[in-house]
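[audit] Reproducing an earlier prediction to check determinism. Same input, same settings, fresh worker. If the tokens differ from the archived copy the diff job will pick it up downstream; this log only records the rerun itself.
[audit] input (411 residues):
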Amino acid sequence: MLMRYAERMWHGEARMEGLFNGDVPAGVAFEIASGVAVLPAFANVTVFRTSEGLVLFDTGAPNTARRNHEAIRKWSPDPVRYAVYSHGHIDHVFGVGPFDEEADRNNGERPVVIAHEAVKARFERYALTKDYNQAVNARQFAHPKFRWPENFRYPDLTYRDDYRLRVGELTFELRHARGETDDHTWAYVPERNILLAGDLFIWNSPNCGNPQKVQRYPADWAAALRTMAELDAALLIPGHGVPIAGSDRVRTALTDVAEYLESLVSQTLELMNAGRRLDEIIHAVHVPERLAAKPYLRAAYDEPEFIVRNIWRLYGGWWDGDPAALKPPRADRLAAVLAELAGGPRPLADRARRALDEAEPRVAARLIELAHQAAPEDEDVKDAYRQIFTALSESATSLMARGIYLAAANG
């Protein structure tokens, strides 16, 4: 069933959303090759059966840990020998706990967790920014009851550049690459000609510009994808979404995503070198239409515009080129002055409504934010604020934008 759905997704006849709304059963380990199973969820778990036990590539999120454990146990009773984190995001590192508990009950050995050395630093940063991360993720996923975890399963074994893991008859060639994160691992299993991409391939526009998260690395990401493509793998298993079967398809998908990122980087750097400001650049850079139309490059999670901002931050720092933005006034003070010039906050709110009606949502958002900062308790302004940001959330194409607009609308 999973590979039939994958075929439909390749042809644009099905979408990622179907994996979460019942088109593919949840909590099932689908054997997609002999001794290889994938558990599709928000973040995938891949399981390899070897003569010495099981190897997991990624382990899942806190809310799927128990379900994944049960599914894996229905597929195989063998002990889990190793678990590899593709990176330290919480949807990939919270499935080891039930296997640790199982080993403790049976007086067995816990799985050995392997990850890039930077995963430890990530977990330490998460502890320092726990409340911030809770707020960010509640907003991003429109989940106000979201709770950021406080305890993490740290890796037992770390590596820096590459690591060769031999388990039974299989070899797992682990390689580090910066992309969505600085701690990313992708893997190749030569005996099976299987590529494990982690979040370097996610059946969406690359998550390389998230407005609320730390630096991402588009050029390094593209280079890693091209290295993967050279392996001529017969099967690609991504961190999110369905597997891709067939060496031609795998190569095409990897090189398309690489070209997508390379195009954004080259366009942005060209304009930066020409002295253009960030405000100009984000409206001038565009993804080639051929790539934007690919079913695995939909801007449904992140957006090209956000990636451009991240490229600017990587190469140019935080200042956007506007001298007035170098040391700006307090936002509420500037809003009060502009509201005074406009005749009060309500005329600003009225003009914002008109901008929305005239299909200028960016202007509407800026004006209503000024009106709200100038008069946060004014009921008419608050009504306009909710109306405009609700409309923006409903028209947003990416989860990133939708979550931020919806959080604003809901106060």
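[audit] rerun output stored. Observation attached for the diff report: The mean pLDDT is 96.
[audit] end
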